User: Which sequence fits this backbone?
């Protein structure tokens, strides 16, 4: 009887301990669920073999408009439909890195996904392997996703701001060179010609000295607007620095350049007659035409146009 009582008591104690452990586990699960609900990140578990998320936190609904169950059910084919086409190749490389990395590593991946409303969002995933197959191959990864759309937009704004001349609103030297280098490569592939026109605002120093820097700034802004009005939409115009402007004329050839220069001179004369300003605008020009048969670098073309501009300045102002 004593043996039976002891066994019964042991069973009761074991049941109580089991209940306590289960209660503690449930408490930990509720705590973890609350943490996940409060987290600004999406937490997910990705099964490499199945090619889908087997777990996603509820925050995913707020982020993309798709519920966790939808994401889990739809799998990788649907995710690839949401992924931006330009990010598909990098996603493949990201998966290859996951398949070969050890458990101590974390890997980041930034990509664009279209949400339920059709809006592209920038996301950053950080993943690590946490479960492997018996042979050692990664089976599942755990990761977090953060919406970095605002961060990326802010970066783009800062990047654009660094390429724009604050006074005139034109591209600055850096912005011009980036676009011009791209155009040069494109022209070489197409074997098409273009021209670099270098312009100097001859009167700028005199305006500054006589009327002050505010009028000098106004002259630069006026010159920028005038030049913009003379160029085609496909041409590239920039303030290269100080009183110098530069433009790239796309698909240009010798007979098409002179009419443009004449148009700038005529527009300048008309502005000087009707502006009511105490100062006049005057430009010196230098033009370097590219030759598809004898390619030159951008620096070579700019230097050639610059030298020709100074020759024009000396001829027009020999004193």
Assistant:
């Amino acid at each position: 009887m004593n043996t039976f009582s002891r066994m019964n008591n042991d069973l009761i104690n074991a049941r109580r301990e089991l209940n306590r452990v289960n209660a503690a586990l449930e408490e930990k699960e509720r705590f973890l669920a609350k943490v996940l609900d409060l987290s600004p990140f999406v937490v997910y578990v990705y099964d490499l073999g199945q090619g889908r998320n087997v777990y996603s936190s509820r925050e995913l609904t707020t982020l993309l408009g798709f519920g966790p169950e939808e994401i889990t059910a739809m799998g990788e084919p649907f995710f690839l439909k949401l992924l931006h086409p330009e990010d598909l190749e990098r996603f493949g490389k990201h998966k290859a890195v996951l398949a070969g990395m050890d458990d101590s590593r974390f890997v980041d991946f930034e990509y664009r996904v279209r949400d339920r409303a059709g809006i592209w969002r920038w996301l950053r995933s950080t993943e690590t392997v946490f479960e492997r197959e018996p042979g050692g191959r990664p089976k599942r990864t755990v990761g977090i996703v953060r919406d970095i759309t605002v961060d990326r937009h802010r970066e783009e704004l800062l990047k654009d701001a660094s390429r724009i001349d604050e006074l005139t609103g034109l591209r600055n030297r850096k912005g011009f060179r980036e676009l011009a280098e791209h155009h040069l490569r494109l022209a070489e592939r197409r074997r098409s010609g273009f021209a670099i026109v270098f312009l100097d605002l001859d009167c700028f120093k005199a305006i500054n000295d006589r009327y002050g820097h505010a009028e000098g700034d106004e002259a630069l802004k006026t010159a920028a607007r005038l030049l913009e009005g003379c160029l085609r939409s496909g041409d590239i115009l920039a303030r290269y620095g100080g009183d110098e402007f530069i433009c790239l004329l796309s698909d240009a050839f010798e007979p098409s350049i002179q009419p443009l220069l004449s148009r700038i001179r005529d527009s300048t004369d008309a502005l000087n007659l009707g502006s009511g300003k105490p100062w006049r605008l005057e430009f010196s020009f230098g033009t370097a035409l590219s030759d598809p048969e004898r390619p030159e670098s951008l620096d070579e073309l700019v230097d050639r146009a610059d030298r020709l501009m100074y020759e024009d300045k000396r001829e027009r102002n020999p004193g």
